[in-house]
Amino acid sequence: MPTLRRVTVLSGGVGGARFVQGLLHGLRSGTVPGGSADTEVTVVANTADDWWIHGLKVCPDLDTVMYTLGDGIDVERGWGRRDETWSARTELEAYGVEPTWFGLGDRDIATHLVRTQMLEAGFTLSQVTEALCRRWLTPVHGDGVRLLPMSDDRVETHVAVADPESPSGRRVVHFQEYWVRLRAAVPAETVLVVGQDAATPAPGVLEAIAGADLVVLPPSNPVVSVGTILGVPGVRDAVRATSAPVVGLSPIVGASHVHGMAAQMLTSIGVEVSASAVGIHYGARERGGVLDGWLVDDRDADQVARLEDAGVRARAVPLMMSDHDATAAMAAAAASLVVDGAA
Ligand code: GDP
Ligand code: CA
């Protein structure tokens, strides 16, 4: 069985972070075929959710991965710091400072202060991320993981929604406003990824894809997490060209997402909300796409044949990340599906 020396994961926030946590658990406990505690994991995180708020640069997906792997996450919420307090938010509200719908926790603000100061001093987002991770990815937690932003350039997802009061009948809002203020409760007409065409992959991203023994698309949002990473010029080509097998896990179980708003995002780009449609949207590598294999949940076992017809090797396994063991089993099944001789 080939040894997995390096695994690269293209991750969003909560879904991707939980998957990587389970993957690490599986590598350490020896349940991922070919993997071991020495397997190096590189996480390339989406940065198109990033924005500036109250003068601070906030990178939700990078922070969710960092806090999750570093055991600083609020597990219930899935994002932000554990044991968080909200005094700064209350004080800002007392000043009438907008927007009041986006709350930053007091502990979390420290991260954004460090990041913002370093960016303003001229460091790149990659350098800042590396510095922040020195605290979180330690020998105790998250050892052997490297976290890279997808790009050091500003890339921002915006969403067009219907607005009868606007002369054009529509309004474009930042992804955070769509998700946090509008709670993704109104249809997304279009998703625009501002700055993407001019962005370049952050240092190490293309190398991590080319030099991997396995590339994984975790159960992250296919449009605004994995889609935006693949959309950074050069990344999709690197995934298509890598000698490593590429495997993905469906974030859609049954007829909807498990959490979040993948259904709204898929609808906005005209993709049916089903596990197989997402796999076919990514496409088989041999037919111009990025996947060699795709896992769907047991409940979607009847969709395996459709995927295989589209050239994607597929299998149905339990895909609920209910605990570390269950998630490690998903990582093991993903590796088994595509690493030759591992099944
Ligand atoms: P975000 O940036 O915080 O939205 O996180 P991601 O993009 O990484 O992941 C969001 C996706 O994770 C959603 O589409 C969810 O459906 C998916 N997800 C969350 N928990 C689970 C789970 O237990 N199983 C599966 N299959 N998908 C999940
Ligand atoms: Ca996100």
Task: Pick out its properties.
seven-stranded parallel sheet, binds guanosine-5'-diphosphate, 14 strands, FbiA/CofD, CofD, globular, Rossmann fold, alpha/beta, magnesium, EC 2.7.8.28, binds calcium ion, 35% helix, three-stranded antiparallel sheet, 343 residues
Structural features, described:
Its EC number is 2.7.8.28. InterPro entries: CofD (IPR002882), CofD-like_dom_sf (IPR038136), FbiA/CofD (IPR010115). The protein is α/β, with parallel strands linked by helices. It has two domains: 6-77 and 116-151 and 200-251 and 274-339, Rossmann fold (3-Layer(aba) Sandwich); 156-194, no CATH class. Helix content is 35%, strand content 18%. It is built from 13 helices and 14 strands. A seven-stranded parallel sheet has the order 5-2-1-9-10-13-14, sandwiched between helices. Strands 7-6-8 form a three-stranded antiparallel sheet. A two-stranded antiparallel ribbon has the order 3-4. Strand 11 (252-253) and strand 12 (256-257) form a beta hairpin. It is globular. The relative contact order is 0.16. Bound molecules: guanosine-5'-diphosphate (GDP) and calcium ion. Guanosine-5'-diphosphate is lined by residues 11-16, 61, 64, 219-221, 225, 250-251, 253, 257-260, 262, 319-321.
Across the major sheet, the strand order is 5-2-1-9-10-13-14
Please report the number of helical segments: 13
Strand-and-helix sequence, N→C?
A: EHEEEHHHHEEEHEHEHHEEEHHEHEH
Distinct ligand kinds: guanosine-5'-diphosphate, calcium ion
- Based on Cα principal axes, name the global outline: globular
The first-level CATH class name of the largest domain: Alpha Beta
CATH topology of the largest domain: Rossmann fold
Helix amount, in percent? 25-40%
| Average pLDDT reading | 96
Query: Uncertain segments of ≥5 residues (pLDDT<50)?
Result: none
Give the termini separation: 9 Å
Rg, Å, rounded: 19 Å
GO molecular function, one term: magnesium ion binding
Keywords: Magnesium, Transferase
Protein name: LPPG:FO 2-phospho-L-lactate transferase
Pfam family, one: CofD
